[in-house]
Specification:
Blueprint: H1 2-13, E1 21-22, E2 28-29, E3 42-47, E4 50-55, H2 71-107, H3 111-133, H4 138-152, H5 156-164, H6 166-177, H7 193-206
Antiparallel strand pairs: 1-2, 3-4
Helix pairs in contact: 1-3, 1-6, 2-4, 2-7, 5-6
Length: about 210
Amino acid sequence: MRILFCVIIAILCAFGSYAQKVDADGVPVPASVVKKPVNGRYHFITEQGDTALMVVLNNVTVFPPMKFKNKKQEEFYWRTVRDVKRTLPYAKLIAETLLETYEYIETLPTQKEREAHLSQMEKEIFAQYKPQLKKFTKSQGKMLVKLINRETNQSSYNILKAFLGSFRAGFWQTFGKFFGVSLKTSYKPDKNADDAIIERVCILVEQGQL
């Protein structure tokens, strides 16, 4: 479990520290006024010098009642519900900060400065996330890697490669595989039965039905 924690920390360190603010109603507030979705639901826009809040209603997906083929599938389903509820917020956090952190890293003029920034960031993020992540089970760690793929539409390996380079990404991939964690984990709910169940659970959690 220790190595799984280190792999997850490595993924988080690729994005930078991020402290999301919320208003009195719990609505996410970005650092600056933007015209794109925050959490896929809220848009902050400026009209005539004023800041307005628009609520965009999400589509609602209705599923037929779940029918389990056997006891094993039922156990997988409820284990998936537990793991998705635990890890989906972290996957969304990573997706939300991906672009912001990438743009910041690009402003640093030299590779040395980027490495120094990542090193400092690693210390800060380790301290911030250690209490939560060290409680993750192995299955929850694997679920987080899979949901990062869902939220960003790319594998954790490719994300690490983009930020840290091929060598360091390859190191973490090899390191993780010794403990059953592949950063190249795919997510294909349209082709994989287990992923289809995960997608169903994710949607139900997002809609507040689980």
